Amino acid sequence: PSPPPHCSMNLFSPRRNGAVPAVPVKTEAVENCVIRDLGLEVGIPVWVPCARTVWRAGVVTGLTDDSVSVELETESDGTVGHRPAETVTLMAKPQPLYGSASRCVRRNLDLMTMKGALAANDLSTLMMLDEPELLHAVQARFSRGVVYTLTGPVLLAVNPFREIPALYSHETLRSYIDLKPEEPVHTPHAFGVARAAYQGVWHSRASQTVLISGESGAGKTETTKFVMRFLAMAGLGDAGASLSLVERRVLESIPLLEAFGNARTLRNNNSSRFGKYVELLFGSSPSAGTSPRLVGAFTRTYLLEKVRVADVHQNERNFHIFYQLLAAVAAKEPTVQSMISSLGFSDKALAVDKFSYLTRSSITELPGREEAADFGETLSAMRSFGMSNEEITNVLGAILAVLFLGNITFRAPKNNSEGSEINPDSDAASSAAALLGVTPASLEFVLCRRRRRVKDEPTINEALNTSVAAVGRDALARHLYSGVFAYVVSRINDTVGTPEVQLRPAKTLPFVGVLDIFGFEFFQTNSLEQLCINYTNELLQQYFNELIFEHETALYAREGVTWNPLDFPDNKVVVEMLGGTGRDSLGVFPMLDEECQVIGGKPEAWVRKMLASGRGKLLQEVKRRQGNFIISHFAGPVEYDSSAFLAKNRDLLGADSVECMLESTKPFIQQRFANVRTSGAQGATSDGSPRRRAKPYSVSFEFRTQLQSLMDTIRVTTPHFVRCIKPNPQSVPHTLDRDAVVAQLRFQGVLQAIEVSRAGYPVRLRHREAVLKYRMLASRETYRYLEMEVRRGACAAAATRLFASLLQEESGCLPPGSLEVGATLVFLKREGVHALDDAVLAARAAAAVRLQAWDRARHVTLWYQAVKAAALQLQVLFRMLAAQQRAQHLRSEAAAIRLQKVARGVMARSLVQQQRRGVTIIQRWLASRHARLRFMLARRAVCLLQHWVRKTAIAARTRRRLSGAITVQSWWRGRCGRRAAKRQRLARRRLQAACRVLLLRWREGVFYRSLDNIEALEMAAHGLQVRHPNSRDRSLEARAVANFPGRTGEVIAAREALAMSGRRVVSELATLRRLRAALAKDVTEARQATFSYRFSSIFMPCLVRERSEPSIEWCR
To answer: Of 99, 152, 217, 579, which one is the catalytic site residue?
Structure first.
């Protein structure tokens, strides 16, 4: 048996799980806070705030009144990151890395393992759900490829940024369609939300709305596609049925709207720059039990970001349609070329780098995207919606007009620095005017001039400076593109709509509305667009709060539980502050509209009016940045820059520009500007009639009107919520940024939705579950009563009895008002759950202490008895071993004496034998030594004699061999000398023969040319010798020059040679005669020689010197 433990055992100690003992760290000063009031106990798993990972898991290892020690766990499952275990001590005062102890949150035991996180498809069913638990569950599921998670009525969809096999396949879609109406959806999916909406239309005949929101790049557009795809195919019934024309057109409208309304942003390559609400109308079933089919659709758009047309930030792109059109032109598509040619342009003048609106950002292409192919799909979609080639050409012409308007530049006239005129260096103005159907002069006039009309007064033309002209140009381009976008949407609605669509206001057809709207936005610089988007999310969050409030009210009324409605959070104050209440003009937007109507209104004045309205902490001023203000939204505070609010809110186009467009020769352009609001609507019209004063217009007023209409539509439908989450800012797969995800959960109201749903009594337990969980807190009498009632099935009575006893004042287990027992559920507040859990822990700890005491007593008793029996056995064993050792010692001693006697005899005999063998060996060695000495002397004498004999014989033999060698060498050297001399003679003869042959070949070339002149030279020489010995040289020279005009140098040389050897002329002539005779004989032999003339020129001088023949010297 093992020895007894020397320390008390704690069943809740982290050491039982192999955790490292807590190491205290240095802490800061303590403020007034009692940590024990937080409901924490040693051994409880908690979440600790962390600046690196937002939340980090740990286990409480120590508690005091002002601090808590938490041992942080090592995250090895990839959900948080690989960090070593460490122990921190949290104080009441917030710390830089891990925050304060008051923010420690208990962990949900159901989500502590990966299996539990994957099994929790609906997190709202958990007993406890907080921000860290939601973040942990989302990340754990995302790491395993599960991108959908339910939190009550909200579906969280995390964008995986990769293809997940079979997630959106046709088989998966059919599996959701083929589910029976009463069969629930076990796995969260976008198809599940679409199915719930479709089932509501089918069985309840009630209209539905699917609200999809999220930041740019979170996957809103793709989720909208999946929902619309399901709704279009849900009514097919049989898997082999085909889509109707309306259903196909509804699906084809998606890429068409993406081409005209989507663009690349810093966060997403295909970001929707507008909000849309698509109403999908379903017709009545042709027969009972048949699912309704899609019969029509209607699309509403909100807040198109038309400012992007003229203002594109770096690393972003303009709308896709611009790049698609130019890519199709560059690809020389026949259809596009014919349309462009009909507009009067060539493909060479249309390129992305030639348009200012497209080159303000360095990003002009998207990786992995074929713009020309996308334009082909856009063109097919436009044709499917009934647009003729003429209408498509008009749309493309308007798109090109927008681009050419951006290329128009202005300069100041020479005599008017405050005026402007179009720069004549570019033909952009003429191209834009041709596309718009106006003259270049009229276009220049409306851009560079402003007409002021006063009644009974002549019209005044005011010149505009270059900056104002550029603003007017951009405004015209924005309104033109906005008109084209509205035209495309209207054509979609006209084509997809049916006669039943017109009857929809009479509530004849149910519909499913799909809302793809911006999520809460918070950038470094926030303007009017962000305020409108955040106001929309405030209204949607208020609507969600109202839904949850109504659901909770119905639940409490059904259960018969009294509750306080003030416990529910509400953002009504923020909504009223932004939009005002009724006719109240103290809202942010009403005051903005009022400031826009003031002549000379400024953003600073508008901000001062807002701050003076007394909104308290909801609206604050930024003192370091004048004109900036902060609004506290439900998702957090956001700072706005008011510098561009008034200009963006007005968004008016000059009246002159509108009138110019209305006078266009193209009806398409006229229709786009027929209902455009204008600025400068004062005085009279061009025909002198008084102008009717238009109702004040502003972007915020129009947006609020559309938004109110949208909310009225949504309020009469059954909503379904989808919140799209972008896992990381880099848009890469397999990576989840915890900071970014938590920020999106907060900004999209998911955490507040949980807070709303958990307000009042957030923990709900069935009667049986509550009794079985907390029965150990009851007394013995009550415990027996509970056992009896649970066996009988009367769980309601048992729960009432149990919690009534716990609420008694003397027990002090539950605080007042923290618990209510309903008809089927037990409702608990957080403090009640914490109190009950603490009581359960205390009861378990007390029971554990009693069990440990009894177990220790029993263990020690058994151990003592075993030790006592073992001691007696050891004593007997030790005595026996001692006696045996004594007897063994005596026997060993007697045997040793006998062994010594034998050993001494053996040693003596062995010594004598060794001495005898030594003497014998010495004698034998001495005898052999004397014999060896005699033998060595004899052998040395024989060797000396042999050496002398051999030396004498060798000397004689050497003398004979030397004499013979000298004789042989003398003979051999003579023979070799004779042979060498003979070889030299033969070589010299062969050389002479070769030289003769070469000389003959050379002579052939020389004498062959001079053969006819030899006789003349001979006669001349003979005459000189006989008649005129003194003038012989001059006559010879004259004749030679006359006969050989090209060889004057040779003649002079010959004359000099004749002068030096006059007496030898006759002999030389004889030699020439002999040579001429020999020449005819040797010419054939000379022609067969293989040597060249240059080789003969080398040996000829030597031969001449040897023979000293005058004829050869003269010939040279």
So the answer is: 217
